[in-house]
Amino acid sequence: MGIGPNSGAMTTAADIExxxxxxxxxxxxxxxxxxxxxxxxxDASGLARAAAAELQKRLEESxxxxxxxxxxxxxxxxxxxxxxxxxxxxxxxxxxxxTLTANLAVALARxxxxxxxxxxxxxxxxxxxxxxxxxxxxxxxxxxxxxxESEFGVKLLSMGQLVAPGKAIAxxxxxxxxxxxxxxxxxxxxxxxxxxxxxxxxxxVQLTMLQKFKPSGAIVVSTPQDLxxxxxxxxxxxxxxxxxxxxxxxxxxxxxxCPHCGQPSDPFGSxxxxxxxxxxxxxxxxxxxLAMEIRVASDVGQPPAANDGPQGxxxxxxxxxxxxxxxxx
Length: 329
Ligand code: ADP
Known about the structure:
Largest sheet: 9 strands, mixed
CATH architecture of the largest domain: 3-Layer(aba) Sandwich
Structural class: alpha/beta
CATH topology of the largest domain: Rossmann fold
Bound molecules: adenosine-5'-diphosphate
Oligomer: single chain
Number of domains: 2
């Protein structure tokens, strides 16, 4: 126990250190004590804001109750998380950009990464549905949004959570910019990567994203047919001209395996995105087949990447490439 004023001996920093509650002691980096003032430095790395505040409160209370301590000063330090922003874009809508974003996020989370998804697709914010979080509303603290948690270990904020369904599409420049700012500047805490589901094409949201929140890299999604690839090239150009490294191209809806006869067919062709990537000097990250299961599972908020099986593995392989890129970038 502590050495009280009545015992005749003076309380020392070592006494304080010894009496710290066991579960928070490992976080203490230094203790100083002079003239009744205890100054503690604690490591709050990896703690969410609320947990860090709780740590501070518990330190103040427990040390404040020790003999000879008249004042407690707590300094919390945390490793600064170098969070990487990865934009997922496409030249046009309906190519599976949102589906890919959600599944990459889930696959990365399964691989142990801390992931957040920012759904900036004002024309069709679908991440809340894809990640089965449509009934969740984000809270705010100190003017900052707190992302919602999905059951797949992925944090989420969506334009769709800020406005009534169908309203976001009417926004113009400054409004979309400030809404995007709210999503990006939220309390992402320990998220080491934010995947941003951009609207298709090259509009206001993309420009704000590139100018204000310069992504570390970008992934471009395309279906295999020529027309989609021409659009995808425009999306690539946008990132390149803004100096955002292109991580690579993904081909979605490539090759259809008939669930009845088992015969493969290529409604949109196959291999087009890989050839285009090569011609454009970009990496090809992989292809996702056109599969009824992907559409059905997506509609009910069960991303295939949350499970093993061929569809989940197709997403996991691309997530591995992304993870390797994140580690090297
Ligand atoms: P985008 O974000 O590019 O507009 P979505 O991700 O919303 O596209 O996908 C459009 C539709 O296509 C959705 O109904 C989705 O479930 C479906 N879809 C996406 N990828 C696949 C796939 N590989 N196989 C089958 N359906 C898919």
